[in-house]
Amino acid sequence: MNRKSWSSAKPGPIRLGDKTPSNPADIPQSKIHAVPKAALEEGILQLLASAAEMQQRQDFDSALQLYEAAMDKVRAHGLNRKRLFTGTSKKPAPLNNRTPIQWCLHVGDIASAICLLGSPNTALAELRTTVTCERVGQILDAGADIEYRIGPMGRTLLLQEAAEGRHAGVRLALDRGASITVMDDNGDTALALALPYEKSQASLIVADLMKAGADVRSSDGQGQPLLKLAVAQGQPEVVAQVIKALSPLSAADWECMVNWAACLPAHGDKWSTRTCEVLRLLLNNGLDPNLCLQANGNVALLEVAVRRQSAGSEVLVADLLDHGAAPNLEAALHGGITQNIELILKRGNPLQSAQQQQIAAWITKLPLEPRNWSPRNLDTLNLLLDHGLDPSFCRPAAPHSPLIVCAAASGNLPLVQKLIALNAQLNAMDDNSDTALICAAKAGNRPIYDALKKAGVNDRVFFGMVTVWSNHQSRT
After folding, report:
1. Is CATH 1.25.40.20 correct for 361-476?
2. Whose CA is closest to 296, among 263, 341, 329?
């Protein structure tokens, strides 16, 4: 420069560096102001919003670059990644209705989702239940380890999908080479986790696992045989699969099944539908139909099954009888439903002498006053008459009332009409010399009185001058 500098100490050309300090520490430093956190977050949100717009345009490469830039900023400044990436409120469009992860899943941009989550393994753990198996496959293709522990108790993809009963996920894991022998922290394999699952896909999962080489003779993490686990908690279809795979059954297998059946509750209404179906399955595979329950050594399976009030109980009763269960008619009469009693009666038709004695014992224990008999008792009597009970039968205990007298005293017209049709002795008396006609007159039951009279019973007393009806009604 040839001009004089106003800042120069003496005239002459200006030389750059004339005043350069010999000590670098003396050089004045310009102050760098820290960027406020709010401004940083706002800038990152704009990056995320721009990435979402790129995804909407199907420009996934640009979106990925923007997401990577946003992630770099988050890591560099130690910001709260979760708050930025998971919330949707107070954010620029289009982030005001979807989070960045949701945008990635919405448009199928798995690469960007992996970028935001940090790694393929993390994406596998986070997205497994929210994306299709095809997307999970893309995550595996991106480098996720098939044996990475993604679930509780150290479960891999195969273990977690088996535990949750997701057949498609199990199939994917097997196709990708997942180990069939891998265990979780409890020592459970995929087969052990799948056996007790009670959803419709359980049998499909078990079939695939066994086809892949799962050892059905192994134990679960508690050391229990898998057969025991299946029988106690598995679907009937699964139990059938396990039994078939174990065939021929060993003595230990049989002990497992017998112990389960013998430990069932002594109250049939506590048996679930699954329990009954498994029992039927075991009967078809050779379980003793006369097995007694440990809760009460005198009660056989059939006695408990007969007393079940649940719909469909007759199916199990029929199976037990078909496999040779010895019926206890008296026990059935005391607590069984009429459908199950009828199944037993059909097996013993005509009634045997032992069954006649059981019926007599049951009738003896009915309330002394027939008017106190329940509708079930009366229905059961109708059923017994249909299967051969003597219509002129008398109660073995005092007052030794004939059935026709009991029926009239109970006020049950259909039962009286049935006894009339079966040619019961209509004039039979109890120990008090009461006939059915007298019982009807005492009770003021005109329909039964007229039915007996129509059947030929003479209602005249005192040399034919007074009817039984008028005689007893005059006393009331």
Report:
1. yes
2. 263
